[in-house]
Amino acid sequence: MNENNNDAADDGRQQIDLETLDDRSLLIIDDDRPFRQRLARAMEKRGFDVEVAESVEEGMALVREIHPAFAVVDLRLEDGNGLDIVTVLHDVRPEARVVMLTGYGNIATAVAAVKAGAIDYLAKPADADDVSKALLVVDGERPAPPENPMSADRVRWEHIQRVYELCGRNVSETARRLNMHRRTLQRILAKRSPK
User: Fold this and answer.
1) Rounded distance, CA 36 to CA 52, Å?
2) Does the keyword Zinc-finger apply (predicted)?
3) Could you give the percent of the chain with pLDDT greater than 90?
4) For position 169, which CATH number holds?
């Protein structure tokens, strides 16, 4: 991919100039229809040629058909895991730039996605500017920190959700591993995620 080192992101990080690229194909795979449609419109306005899918099956078919240069993939989809799509995409197009989207309790898996070839991961609901910056950051540069990073309460909540998922959603086992009273854990799990 061509890189324009003269243009920089607002934070001083170098960005690929999308205008200089021959292939601007972007595949967005997310099962949240309103979010997927909003993100697709926003990314089209930024110059990407957007295709969308709502499932692993549909996403795999599009990956094999269009071999996108860019992809934004939700980690958890109704019919499976977005990591499977990343693997197939890197098989058909090794230089593809993928950003993973993650919801609650998936931060550790998102880190695994980066190790598997995604260039970054973002917490949902991700802002189109953050997605664009992550997709276009120059190789070797680190993506910009988010404008609104997770609060300490949210990080704690994410950790608890992760351990809960790893324990097979077993409250007693999760409480034991976190050295927390079971009722305290149940109250935390019953609440919505903090911002």
Assistant:
1) 7
2) no
3) 38
4) 1.10.10
